[in-house]
């Protein structure tokens, strides 16, 4: 939790936090659909398909963190795992995309699986 002095020096702007969350949601939805296309073309079934989605969704979160959040927080002197300045909660950042993109993943996975295997 930032101290009062830190909040006065660099305040957390709720509009920016909402924008970051919305952008992350859009990225996760798009990548979930692309992962569904990949899983369908590869012909993955059952647990292997869901494991594929889980691994690549977490990999996407790691890449977003490494490429966008960590350099910004390191430049400001914050600990690298502190995502609360940019998103509502660390839980939302790391696992929010798992449930947000699941429906799109399943739809595109089954569509492309059916197209390739038919």
TrEMBL record:
One cellular component (GO) term of this entry: EMC complex
Biological processes annotated in GO: autophagosome assembly; protein folding in endoplasmic reticulum
Membrane-traversing stretches: 24-44, 50-70, 91-116
Coiled coil: none
Protein's membrane topology: Multi-pass membrane protein
InterPro entries (UniProt xref): Emc6 (IPR008504), EMC6-like (IPR029008)
Location relative to the cell: Endoplasmic reticulum membrane
UniProt keywords, alphabetically: Endoplasmic reticulum, Membrane, Transmembrane, Transmembrane helix
Main location: endoplasmic reticulum
PANTHER family, A to Z: ER MEMBRANE PROTEIN COMPLEX SUBUNIT 6
Similarity comment: family membership: Belongs to the EMC6 family.
Protein name: ER membrane protein complex subunit 6
């Amino acid at each position: 939790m930032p101290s009062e002095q830190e909040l006065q020096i660099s305040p957390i702007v709720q509009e920016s936090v909402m924008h970051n969350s919305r952008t992350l949601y859009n990225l996760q939805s798009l990548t979930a659909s692309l992962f569904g296309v990949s899983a369908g073309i590869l012909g993955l079934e059952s647990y292997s398909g869901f494991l594929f989605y889980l691994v690549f969704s977490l990999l996407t979160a790691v890449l977003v963190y490494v490429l966008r959040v960590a350099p910004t927080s390191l430049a400001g002197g914050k600990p690298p795992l502190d995502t609360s300045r940019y998103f509502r909660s660390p839980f939302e950042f790391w696992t929010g995309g798992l449930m947000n993109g699941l429906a799109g993943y399943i739809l595109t996975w089954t569509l492309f699986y059916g197209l390739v295997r038919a």
